[in-house]
Amino acid sequence: MRLDTMKPVLHPVHLVGAGPGDPELLTLKAVRVLRAATVILVDDLVGRQVLGSVLEGAEPAPRVIHVGKRGGCASTPQDFIEKLMVREALAGEKVVRLKGGDPLIFGRAGEEIAALRAAGLEVEIVNGITAGLGAAASLGVGWTDRRMESQATLLLTGHARPGSAGPDWRGIAALAATGVTLVIYMGVSRLEQIAAQLLAALPADLPAAVVERASTRDERRLVTTLGGLVDAVAAHGLGSPAVLIIGRVLRDARVDAFGSVERVGT
Amino acid sequence: MRLDTMKPVLHPVHLVGAGPGDPELLTLKAVRVLRAATVILVDDLVGRQVLGSVLEGAEPAPRVIHVGKRGGCASTPQDFIEKLMVREALAGEKVVRLKGGDPLIFGRAGEEIAALRAAGLEVEIVNGITAGLGAAASLGVGWTDRRMESQATLLLTGHARPGSAGPDWRGIAALAATGVTLVIYMGVSRLEQIAAQLLAALPADLPAAVVERASTRDERRLVTTLGGLVDAVAAHGLGSPAVLIIGRVLRDARVDAFGSVERVGT
């Protein structure tokens, strides 16, 4: 090999899930990959304490680049993030793209994988605990429950792509009426529209819960009904990031074990 | 306190997700809780190597009780498992119930939580990476993908409770026709019925994939179409445990990077 044409050794780019917020909910693999990284691109939704606890004492410390990506707010354009990842990886850096939850759930992983592959780079995905599961764990309920004939779960986002048709709320409500649990991400800012669409086909006394910042020290939970949801969320000032869960499985939701729990109108 | 009436100190029972099979996909919290346990009740679906790697050198070694719970096979009755957990926890043991994937997805967590609470015990849930996400990571696709107008994901089980109405396949197929990704657990043994139900409403060329033993060394993946699914699974002899994924998101599924990958009829 001639030195003047030597190219950097390329490493696979890792798309890594940071989990819902509790640093202990990182996987062993995520920790290993993060500590071996030289460049880390981090989403806004990843709690600062997650990365801090992982990188403590990492030598040499990786370059950490914050690339905001929060629904509704000004944030780094997706295109810029993809180009940055590609450039760093082609320069021989060990790049990790760290996302809240799991990168494969509402995380734009498909777009980023395509961009990386188009540049000839390999991609590896390291799963994380998705916020909707962290929320259900805090509430002490399953996403499904045989006892309540709740045998399926639908994951949705309240944050539709501009110009897209948006979710088929009639079909979603029909499915929920058969016992399917709804887990809605990024839905709190559009809560009124979502609740109105669902109330057109579902009973107002169907249990509903909101978990803000699931699994973190700042977590707040609210258990109420579909009919009482909008008022209760407003009254308690709950906001993003939060997960909304609607369904029979919440009948047994735990509301007594934590200081920050509220049950409203059920 | 009088010694003759002294009761054991009770510890919360932990329901812990073991992830899809790769021991590195355990969370830090799962490892900590498992290493502190004195009694561990383990499902069949948890790979032996997962527990072995976690408990290596744990002193004193916990008692490990295998309680099979695999769809369709003879297994320990649910009622017996619940009584065993309660008895051990009331005797002062630090009990962990270790389940494949995440305990809140088709894991009967609701039933076990109710039994433990009825006995006056506290319960804590430690999430795990669910097999359906491990499968998608191996395939290199998201559960959703904005580019394909795939904005929601439905998690189902192919293993209906005896006597239950079973899933509303017509509603499910209608939702899938709008781009919703289907992730079906425990579906391979009922593949013919599931495929027939879906083909009544969905195009035969809709991409479909099966991932057997996702994330383990024995993982096998198959990417085909809904129409070709039954024959392809039979031809390659794929079986449980496996996850079935159906939807547009598979259009970019990775089939070239691993020795065990097959793409059939697409």
TrEMBL record, chains A, B:
InterPro entries (UniProt xref): 4pyrrol_Mease, 4pyrrol_Methylase_sf, 4pyrrole_Mease_sub1, 4pyrrole_Mease_sub2, CobA/CysG_C, Siro_Cobalamin_biosynth, Uropor_MeTrfase_CS
Top EC category: transferase
Record keywords, A-Z: Methyltransferase, Porphyrin biosynthesis, S-adenosyl-L-methionine, Transferase
Gene Ontology MF term list: uroporphyrin-III C-methyltransferase activity
Alphabetical list of PROSITE patterns matching this protein: SUMT_1, SUMT_2
EC number: 2.1.1.107
PANTHER family: S-ADENOSYL-L-METHIONINE-DEPENDENT UROPORPHYRINOGEN III METHYLTRANSFERASE, CHLOROPLASTIC (PTHR45790:SF3), SIROHEME SYNTHASE-RELATED (PTHR45790)
Family: Belongs to the precorrin methyltransferase family.
Name of protein: uroporphyrinogen-III C-methyltransferase
